[in-house]
Design goal:
It contains one helix and five strands. The N and C termini lie far apart (29 Å). 16% of the residues are buried.
Length: 80
């Protein structure tokens, strides 16, 4: 199973997007999405440093909410 993290593109330099998710910044390779016409403000699903798919803002927010719930549940288990 692979885990993709939604990130927002803040800037693009060639095939490298400067992305952010929940305060974490990463440079992401856009080579696999050459035909996607990505722009700053778009959201992408990132796995091991590569953008795999353009996604909607709603999809990104939904995923972040789910990840937050998982982390909260994990924290509660270890502090119980």
């Amino acid at each position: 199973m692979c885990l993709g993290i939604p990130m927002q593109i803040k800037g693009i330099d060639g095939f490298v997007a400067h992305c952010e998710a929940k305060g974490v910044r990463r440079d992401v390779n856009l080579f696999l999405l050459q035909e996607a016409n990505l722009q700053p403000g778009d959201y992408v699903l990132v796995h091991v440093g590569y953008a795999l798919q353009k996604i909607s803002e709603a999809h990104a927010r939904s995923a972040w909410e789910l990840f937050d719930k998982i982390l909260q549940s994990e924290a509660e288990q270890y502090h119980a």
